[in-house]
Write a structure and sequence with these properties.
Number of helices: 15
Shape: globular
Helix content: 25-40%
Strand content: 15-25%
Largest sheet: 7 strands, mixed
Radius of gyration: 26 Å
Length: 598
Amino acid sequence: MKSSNDLRTLLRSVDHKSYPAYKSLGGSWQFPLYTLVIDHVQGDPFASPSSLHAEIPLARAGFPEEYFEKDCMRIALQDFLTRQLAKQFENYNFKAKGSGKSGLLSISRCGQEVLERSACQITADKLIVRFHVGFPAFGRTINAGELEKILFEFLPRCMESSLYFQKLDKQKVQQTVFLAEDQEEIRHLLRQKNLVAFLANGSVLPRKSGISELPMKDCVPFTSPESMQQTLVLPHRGSITGMAIPQGITLIVGGGYHGKSTLLEAIQSGIYNHIAGDGREYVITDDTAVKLRAEDGRCVRNVDISLFINDLPNGKDTTAFSTEDASGSTSQAAAVVESIEAGARLFLIDEDTSATNFMVRDDFMQQVISRKKEPITPFIERVGELYKKTGISTIMVAGSSGAFFYIADHILQMDCYRTRDITASVKALCAQRPAPATTALHFPEMLCINSMNSASSKDARSPQIRFARVLPEYRRTDHPHRGGRGNMGHGNPSAGKYEHMKVKSSGLESFSLDKETVNVRYLEQLTDNEQVTALAYLLRFGLEQVSGGRKTVQESVQLIMDTLREKGWQAFCSSYIPCGLATPRVQELFACINRFRG
């Protein structure tokens, strides 16, 4: 391997040459403390910055082995190191001068959630960090002196200050990995105690603003109703007390602006671990939970929505329903079935973002429009049987219909941002009133294969897929792509067409593969732009590699996630692994496949 001195010599030889001469710097270079690899050199100073990574022998980095022996601890440590390097980069960003992106130093910008990212990776023998550097130039003429500052002064200082255990605050490192282990223990206890969520007393649920995920200052801290309070014992924190939400149907009610949606949003965010100081460190939710909502205009492919919609006036088959422009009710019905297919054990619903005719029909409406004339069986008539026959729980914010009180197992009232358990008093009122019709005339046979409860804790942490299927059973395969471009689920006559598809993501709104756009705006549990980019890579791989033979959607997703777990991001990237990928959940991968119109 060439040395850093060789790199310095080569760098000086290209000084003042045309910008493309920078490409000769590509390759691996041995520095005293690490190996620097220049993966990709930008085409000009105004293009996306160059991609580099550094490899540090794990023994030299010096972190105790017990800090990354568990996946949750390893991911938390990687997240911590990414944040440390990002702070160091801020001190040197654009200190090297030039035009365009000259002097840029950047790595993933982490939010409040702890995600596994390509930016930092701990393997069996090394620590790898991936980042971007804007190679300096004046106009389009190489400024080698400024790049020499970056590579030989700025980078070594940043690396040494942020990636070596001896240079870090050891107590903060320890607290980071211990918090992750405590959070994972709560997830284990949820399964063990048949709970779907836990919110610790003292948690800060509101966020600073609509555009900031930082905790709100001077807000009312969360306190559990005494009737739902439980104390959990964690390996490092010790005893922690909070609200434990059992499996079943839980209703959240209350007046406007009293905190109903804030509570639900905290629960839906609890599928991720959060960093210390976020306020939601000990708000933990079943990590298969899916937020359901209406999504007018989305495409639906070959989904059995007959559980909710039958006997359409146009005679359209709802056991294998397809449309390019779903209504609110059909989109939400499809989302329920697709989430069952994706292994969800908990549905999260806010009435405000749901289709009213999908959720409930009151008695007066049923008298005016008879059941024979209404193709929709509302969610209220299915939710109880969904739990009884498949074990899928529901937490729902409701504010317009009292019919949900009759089918709820637990009813929480938000009163001036404080949580009260009003189940007993509401059930007493229900006993004094005639119950509305909340049971469907017919419920299809269900098959639920749910091995999560018996899975080992290690399996539960890994991205294994647990399936629940709706009967009458059908083997749903992905819809053939138009124009003979190949498909997932059928024979692929166009193998090789997808490998070099251009990937582009637009924040949390959408991503595109060449000209095909996948809208992810309403996948509310996506929390980071890098997850969206990663989904594009996974879908592209699926189109290219998983398309042979006849596979169900579950089989396709299983193969994609198995490949990611066993081979890492290298299997999805043609030349090098970029900085800027964050591992998404299985549920979001299912959702993207289901929304792909290609």
